[in-house]
Amino acid sequence: MCIEEPSVIAAASSAAKFIADKGKGFKTHSTSSIMRGQIQVLDVNPELASILIDSNKKDLIARANEACESMVNRGGGVKDLTTKILRPKVEANQTTKMADMLIVEFQIDVCEAMGANIINTVAEALSPSIVELVGGRVGLKILSNLCPERRAISYFEIPVKEMAWKSSTGKEVANKMLEAYTFAKLDVFRASTHNKGILNGIDAVAIATGQDWRAIESAAHAFSYYSKLLPTKHSINDNFFPS
User: Fold this and answer.
1) Any idea where the domains of the chain sit in the sequence?
2) For residue 42, what is the DSSP state?
3) Lowest-confidence range among 44-48, 117-121, 235-239?
4) Cβ-based neighbours of 125, under 8 Å, separated by 6 or more
5) Residue 66 above 80 pLDDT?
6) Alpha-carbon Rg of the chain, whole angstroms?
7) Which residues pair with 29 in a beta bridge?
8) I need a labelling partner for 191 at 20 to 30 A (CA). Which of 26, 48, 50, 225 fits?
9) Cα 148 to Cα 35: distance, rounded to the nearest angstrom
10) Phi, then psi, of 153 in degrees rounded to 5
11) SS in 3 state form for 128-155?
12) What pLDDT shows up at residue 235?
Protein backbone atom coordinates (compact mmCIF):
# COMPACT_ATOMS: atom_id res chain seq x y z
CA MET A 1 0.00 0.00 0.00
CA CYS A 2 3.07 2.24 -0.01
CA ILE A 3 2.02 4.04 -3.21
CA GLU A 4 -1.33 5.13 -1.78
CA GLU A 5 -2.05 8.67 -0.66
CA PRO A 6 -1.42 9.30 3.07
CA SER A 7 -5.09 9.85 3.93
CA VAL A 8 -6.01 6.41 2.59
CA ILE A 9 -3.28 4.76 4.64
CA ALA A 10 -4.42 6.67 7.72
CA ALA A 11 -8.07 5.74 7.19
CA ALA A 12 -7.29 2.06 6.61
CA SER A 13 -5.05 1.91 9.65
CA SER A 14 -7.59 3.65 11.86
CA ALA A 15 -10.40 1.37 10.72
CA ALA A 16 -8.30 -1.76 11.20
CA LYS A 17 -7.31 -0.70 14.71
CA PHE A 18 -10.92 0.11 15.62
CA ILE A 19 -12.18 -3.23 14.28
CA ALA A 20 -9.43 -5.13 16.07
CA ASP A 21 -10.19 -3.37 19.37
CA LYS A 22 -13.99 -3.27 19.24
CA GLY A 23 -14.88 -6.25 17.07
CA LYS A 24 -13.47 -9.68 16.45
CA GLY A 25 -11.34 -8.78 13.46
CA PHE A 26 -12.09 -9.57 9.85
CA LYS A 27 -13.69 -12.72 8.53
CA THR A 28 -13.30 -13.79 4.93
CA HIS A 29 -14.56 -16.41 2.55
CA SER A 30 -14.91 -16.86 -1.18
CA THR A 31 -17.65 -18.15 -3.43
CA SER A 32 -17.08 -20.35 -6.49
CA SER A 33 -14.27 -20.05 -9.07
CA ILE A 34 -16.65 -19.66 -11.99
CA MET A 35 -15.69 -17.15 -14.69
CA ARG A 36 -17.40 -16.40 -17.98
CA GLY A 37 -16.38 -16.32 -21.63
CA GLN A 38 -18.43 -14.76 -24.42
CA ILE A 39 -18.60 -15.50 -28.14
CA GLN A 40 -20.45 -13.01 -30.35
CA VAL A 41 -22.20 -14.74 -33.28
CA LEU A 42 -23.33 -12.53 -36.17
CA ASP A 43 -25.18 -12.91 -39.47
CA VAL A 44 -27.39 -15.76 -38.25
CA ASN A 45 -31.01 -16.27 -37.27
CA PRO A 46 -30.40 -15.92 -33.51
CA GLU A 47 -33.53 -17.81 -32.45
CA LEU A 48 -32.73 -20.82 -34.63
CA ALA A 49 -29.03 -20.71 -33.77
CA SER A 50 -29.87 -20.63 -30.07
CA ILE A 51 -31.97 -23.80 -30.43
CA LEU A 52 -29.20 -25.58 -32.33
CA ILE A 53 -26.58 -24.67 -29.75
CA ASP A 54 -28.79 -25.71 -26.85
CA SER A 55 -29.50 -29.09 -28.45
CA ASN A 56 -25.74 -29.65 -28.97
CA LYS A 57 -24.61 -28.19 -25.66
CA LYS A 58 -23.09 -31.36 -24.27
CA ASP A 59 -20.89 -31.83 -27.35
CA LEU A 60 -19.84 -28.17 -27.39
CA ILE A 61 -18.82 -28.31 -23.73
CA ALA A 62 -16.76 -31.42 -24.43
CA ARG A 63 -14.99 -29.65 -27.32
CA ALA A 64 -14.37 -26.60 -25.15
CA ASN A 65 -12.80 -28.73 -22.43
CA GLU A 66 -10.37 -30.20 -24.94
CA ALA A 67 -8.77 -26.73 -24.99
CA CYS A 68 -8.23 -26.68 -21.21
CA GLU A 69 -7.43 -30.30 -20.45
CA SER A 70 -5.00 -29.57 -17.62
CA MET A 71 -7.62 -27.43 -15.88
CA VAL A 72 -10.21 -30.19 -16.28
CA ASN A 73 -7.75 -32.59 -14.67
CA ARG A 74 -7.59 -30.27 -11.65
CA GLY A 75 -11.36 -30.35 -11.28
CA GLY A 76 -12.13 -27.25 -13.31
CA GLY A 77 -13.11 -26.62 -16.90
CA VAL A 78 -16.27 -25.56 -18.70
CA LYS A 79 -19.34 -26.44 -16.62
CA ASP A 80 -22.18 -24.88 -18.58
CA LEU A 81 -22.96 -23.13 -21.85
CA THR A 82 -25.87 -20.77 -22.48
CA THR A 83 -27.07 -18.31 -25.10
CA LYS A 84 -28.75 -14.94 -25.12
CA ILE A 85 -30.02 -12.68 -27.89
CA LEU A 86 -29.15 -8.98 -27.95
CA ARG A 87 -31.39 -6.68 -29.94
CA PRO A 88 -29.73 -3.32 -30.69
CA LYS A 89 -31.91 -0.22 -30.72
CA VAL A 90 -31.65 2.50 -33.32
CA GLU A 91 -29.74 5.43 -31.84
CA ALA A 92 -30.65 9.04 -32.58
CA ASN A 93 -27.80 9.50 -35.08
CA GLN A 94 -28.31 6.16 -36.86
CA THR A 95 -30.18 5.63 -40.10
CA THR A 96 -30.24 1.84 -40.03
CA LYS A 97 -30.69 -0.70 -37.24
CA MET A 98 -27.87 -3.12 -36.48
CA ALA A 99 -28.96 -6.74 -36.76
CA ASP A 100 -29.76 -8.84 -33.70
CA MET A 101 -26.82 -10.86 -32.40
CA LEU A 102 -26.44 -14.12 -30.55
CA ILE A 103 -24.08 -14.32 -27.58
CA VAL A 104 -22.80 -17.72 -26.53
CA GLU A 105 -21.60 -17.70 -22.93
CA PHE A 106 -19.69 -20.50 -21.26
CA GLN A 107 -19.17 -20.75 -17.53
CA ILE A 108 -15.77 -22.15 -16.63
CA ASP A 109 -14.28 -23.16 -13.29
CA VAL A 110 -10.77 -21.70 -13.38
CA CYS A 111 -9.77 -23.18 -10.01
CA GLU A 112 -7.07 -20.98 -8.44
CA ALA A 113 -6.17 -19.15 -11.65
CA MET A 114 -7.22 -15.61 -12.47
CA GLY A 115 -8.48 -17.21 -15.65
CA ALA A 116 -8.16 -14.59 -18.40
CA ASN A 117 -5.73 -16.46 -20.63
CA ILE A 118 -7.44 -19.84 -20.41
CA ILE A 119 -10.89 -18.33 -21.02
CA ASN A 120 -9.65 -16.58 -24.16
CA THR A 121 -7.97 -19.82 -25.29
CA VAL A 122 -11.22 -21.75 -24.87
CA ALA A 123 -13.23 -19.04 -26.68
CA GLU A 124 -10.82 -19.14 -29.62
CA ALA A 125 -10.93 -22.94 -29.75
CA LEU A 126 -14.72 -23.20 -29.47
CA SER A 127 -15.64 -20.54 -32.05
CA PRO A 128 -15.04 -22.69 -35.18
CA SER A 129 -17.32 -25.41 -33.81
CA ILE A 130 -20.10 -22.87 -33.27
CA VAL A 131 -19.78 -21.47 -36.80
CA GLU A 132 -19.76 -25.02 -38.19
CA LEU A 133 -22.99 -25.70 -36.33
CA VAL A 134 -25.01 -22.51 -36.94
CA GLY A 135 -23.19 -20.68 -39.74
CA GLY A 136 -22.65 -16.92 -39.68
CA ARG A 137 -19.46 -15.46 -38.33
CA VAL A 138 -17.88 -14.78 -34.98
CA GLY A 139 -17.08 -11.27 -33.80
CA LEU A 140 -15.59 -10.92 -30.34
CA LYS A 141 -14.53 -14.06 -28.49
CA ILE A 142 -13.21 -13.09 -25.09
CA LEU A 143 -13.60 -13.27 -21.32
CA SER A 144 -15.81 -11.07 -19.19
CA ASN A 145 -14.32 -9.40 -16.12
CA LEU A 146 -17.77 -9.27 -14.51
CA CYS A 147 -17.99 -12.50 -12.53
CA PRO A 148 -20.89 -12.36 -10.03
CA GLU A 149 -20.51 -16.08 -9.34
CA ARG A 150 -16.93 -15.53 -8.12
CA ARG A 151 -16.53 -13.16 -5.20
CA ALA A 152 -14.03 -12.69 -2.43
CA ILE A 153 -15.86 -11.50 0.68
CA SER A 154 -14.47 -9.81 3.76
CA TYR A 155 -16.57 -8.51 6.64
CA PHE A 156 -16.52 -7.65 10.32
CA GLU A 157 -19.03 -7.26 13.13
CA ILE A 158 -19.04 -4.65 15.90
CA PRO A 159 -21.68 -4.40 18.66
CA VAL A 160 -23.64 -1.17 18.28
CA LYS A 161 -22.71 -0.04 21.80
CA GLU A 162 -19.01 -0.28 20.86
CA MET A 163 -19.45 2.16 17.96
CA ALA A 164 -19.55 5.22 20.22
CA TRP A 165 -17.32 7.97 18.88
CA LYS A 166 -16.42 11.20 20.72
CA SER A 167 -19.73 12.64 22.02
CA SER A 168 -21.98 10.36 19.93
CA THR A 169 -23.42 7.09 21.23
CA GLY A 170 -22.99 3.87 19.30
CA LYS A 171 -26.62 3.99 18.21
CA GLU A 172 -26.22 7.53 16.92
CA VAL A 173 -23.11 6.56 14.93
CA ALA A 174 -24.89 3.52 13.47
CA ASN A 175 -27.87 5.66 12.43
CA LYS A 176 -25.59 8.21 10.78
CA MET A 177 -23.92 5.43 8.81
CA LEU A 178 -27.32 4.16 7.66
CA GLU A 179 -28.35 7.67 6.66
CA ALA A 180 -25.16 8.05 4.60
CA TYR A 181 -25.71 4.64 3.02
CA THR A 182 -29.30 5.52 2.10
CA PHE A 183 -28.13 8.79 0.53
CA ALA A 184 -25.74 6.84 -1.72
CA LYS A 185 -28.31 4.16 -2.50
CA LEU A 186 -30.70 6.80 -3.83
CA ASP A 187 -28.23 9.19 -5.49
CA VAL A 188 -25.70 8.16 -8.13
CA PHE A 189 -23.41 11.14 -7.47
CA ARG A 190 -23.06 10.13 -3.82
CA ALA A 191 -22.73 6.46 -4.73
CA SER A 192 -19.82 7.22 -7.06
CA THR A 193 -17.81 8.76 -4.24
CA HIS A 194 -18.75 6.07 -1.72
CA ASN A 195 -17.63 3.40 -4.18
CA LYS A 196 -14.40 5.29 -4.80
CA GLY A 197 -13.71 5.19 -1.07
CA ILE A 198 -14.34 1.44 -0.96
CA LEU A 199 -12.02 0.89 -3.92
CA ASN A 200 -9.31 2.97 -2.23
CA GLY A 201 -8.72 0.02 0.06
CA ILE A 202 -9.43 -2.73 -2.47
CA ASP A 203 -7.12 -1.29 -5.13
CA ALA A 204 -4.29 -0.70 -2.69
CA VAL A 205 -4.33 -4.33 -1.57
CA ALA A 206 -4.78 -5.58 -5.16
CA ILE A 207 -1.78 -3.59 -6.39
CA ALA A 208 0.37 -4.67 -3.46
CA THR A 209 -0.42 -8.33 -4.14
CA GLY A 210 0.01 -8.14 -7.92
CA GLN A 211 -3.66 -8.42 -8.90
CA ASP A 212 -5.33 -6.89 -11.95
CA TRP A 213 -6.83 -3.89 -10.15
CA ARG A 214 -8.26 -2.48 -13.39
CA ALA A 215 -10.36 -5.61 -13.87
CA ILE A 216 -11.56 -5.31 -10.28
CA GLU A 217 -12.47 -1.64 -10.80
CA SER A 218 -14.34 -2.36 -14.03
CA ALA A 219 -16.25 -5.29 -12.56
CA ALA A 220 -17.11 -3.40 -9.38
CA HIS A 221 -18.59 -0.47 -11.29
CA ALA A 222 -20.51 -2.73 -13.67
CA PHE A 223 -21.82 -4.86 -10.78
CA SER A 224 -22.99 -1.82 -8.83
CA TYR A 225 -24.90 -0.58 -11.87
CA TYR A 226 -26.30 -3.83 -13.22
CA SER A 227 -26.81 -5.81 -10.00
CA LYS A 228 -30.56 -5.17 -10.11
CA LEU A 229 -30.66 -6.70 -13.60
CA LEU A 230 -28.69 -9.83 -12.70
CA PRO A 231 -30.47 -13.07 -11.74
CA THR A 232 -31.53 -13.21 -8.09
CA LYS A 233 -28.93 -15.86 -7.28
CA HIS A 234 -26.22 -13.31 -8.12
CA SER A 235 -27.52 -10.72 -5.68
CA ILE A 236 -24.87 -9.33 -3.38
CA ASN A 237 -27.09 -10.27 -0.43
CA ASP A 238 -27.44 -13.91 -1.46
CA ASN A 239 -25.34 -16.04 0.88
CA PHE A 240 -23.20 -12.98 1.53
CA PHE A 241 -22.57 -13.89 5.15
CA PRO A 242 -21.89 -17.50 6.07
CA SER A 243 -24.16 -19.00 8.73
Assistant:
1) 6-30+155-234, 34-144
2) E
3) 235-239
4) 63, 64, 66, 67
5) yes
6) 22
7) 153
8) 26
9) 8
10) -120, 130
11) HHHHHHHCCEEEEEEEECCCCCCCEEEE
12) 45
Q: What is the pLDDT of residue 241?
A: 40
Among 140, 120, 116, residue whose Cα is nearest residue 64:
120
pLDDT over threshold 90, residue 152: no
For 210-233, what is each residue's pLDDT tens digit? 888 999 999 988 888 776 665 544
Of 51-65, 109-123, 195-209, 220-234, the range with the lowest mean pLDDT is 220-234
Nearest CA to 163 among 18, 10, 24?
18
Domain 34-144, what fold? Alpha-Beta Plaits (3.30.70)
| Overall residue count recorded for the chain in this entry | 243
pLDDT band (50, 70, 90) for residue 236 = very low
**Burial of 102 (C-beta count, 10 Å sphere; 0-12/13-18/19+):** buried
Q: At 147, which amino acid appears?
A: C
The SS3 assignment for 161 reads: helix
